[in-house]
Amino acid sequence: MRYDRQIKFKGINESGQQRISNSTVGIIGSGALGTHLAESVARMGIKKLIIVDRDYVELSNLQRQSLFKESDAALSVPKVVALKRELQLIRSDLEIETYISHCDAQLLEEAFMQCDILLDATDNFETRQVMNDFCYKYNKPWVYGACVESTYVACPFIPDITPCFNCVMGILPVMNRTCDTVGIIEPAVSLATSYQVMYAMKILTSTEFEPKLVFGDVWQMDHTTLKFSRMGDINCKTCGDSPTYPYLNLREDQTMLCGRDTVQFTTLNFDQNQIIQFLEERNIEYIHTPYFLRFKFSNKPMIWFNGGRLLIHEVKTVNEAKTIYHQLFG
Ligand SMILES: [Zn+2]
């Protein structure tokens, strides 16, 4: 029996496995955290996985992002496409819905409403604040996770039970360094996602537990837990007495991607044929795949995804990217 060892575990039992097998899990991001989380929840036996990521596989991902292959990097396969292919080999009966997209309020409200829980695998605070608002507004638990260098952190946020992410942010370990500058090792990823998956198991099986923020440094072999149930602010705009969910109403057109020297534009009104025609009129060479067009303009590598998302690489600021964008598209 496939889930025998998990059912024998006293915290899960037959009834817990039943709940797990009826559950839908959303994962926001498909990098180091997202791939580890996706494999774990798939093997755990959930019914359905919904996952979003805007990136494609690169060679430098393979050191810590599980399931991706060298061929995915060589072909710049979108991360969620590569992930779905591998997960389906592990669990042919798992329902998987993927989105090659930036995760914003609109996508959450369109695609993630059916989730029983959301797992955080993003690399930036802005998306987490949108997730946090979404989850508290629609009464869904979510589990924060992050790692950089050799440090890891995980924390469950449960509407009506715990204060929200905004209320706790002040005591979170400083995570303003990025993997691109100080690097990251796989054990830090594994620890963050192990705690996230443990919390997901408890929440999905309706196990009672005391929520704690957990963090540590695997290289230093330090580990700490912190209770945070009493840290809620009654004036919090997300979990306080009169919530307005401000981050759900933000609409950003351009975003600087975390530590990537990359700016993303999300409001392009062109379709693929128009972009191709546009590039050909300007004699700009391009690579065309089923998912995107890749080209260079003004010496900056760019990638245009079907659906209207444009990434401009090797830029330092949003303004620099806007200048190039307007040179290109007027
Ligand atoms: Zn709050």
| Average pLDDT over all residues | 91
Strand order of the largest sheet: 3-2-1-4-5-6-7-8
**Rounded radius of gyration (Å):** 20 Å
> Which percent band covers the strand fraction?
15-25%
Quickly count the helices: 12
CATH topology of the largest domain: Rossmann fold
Question: What is the overall silhouette?
Answer: globular
Low-confidence stretches: none
The molecules bound to the chains, other than polymers, are:
zinc ion
Oligomer: single chain
Helical residue percent?
25-40%
Q: Give the SSE string.
A: HHEHEHHEHEHEEHHHEEEEHEEEEH
Q: Indicate the structural class.
A: alpha/beta
**Main β-sheet description:** 8 strands, mixed
Euclidean distance between termini CA atoms: 61 Å
What is the top-level CATH class of the largest domain?
Alpha Beta
Gross CATH architecture of the largest domain = 3-Layer(aba) Sandwich
Describe the structure.
- With 330 residues, the protein is α/β, with parallel strands linked by helices.
- It has two domains: 4-249, Rossmann fold (3-Layer(aba) Sandwich); 254-329, 2-Layer Sandwich (TATA-Binding Protein).
- The chain has twelve helices and 14 strands.
- The protein has helices spanning 4-8, 13-21, 32-44, 70-74, 79-90, 105-111, 125-137, 165-168, 179-182, 186-204, 272-281, 318-329, and strands spanning 24-28, 48-53, 95-100, 117-120, 142-148, 151-157, 212-217, 222-227, 254-257, 262-265, 286-288, 292-297, 300-305, 309-313.
- Strands 3-2-1-4-5-6-7-8 form an eight-stranded mixed β-sheet, with helices on both faces.
- β12 and β13 (300-305) form a beta hairpin.
- α3 crosses α10 (186-204).
- The longest helix has 19 residues, at 186-204.
- The chain starts with a helix and ends with a helix.
- Bound molecules: zinc ion.
- The site of zinc ion (ZN) has 9 residues, from α8.
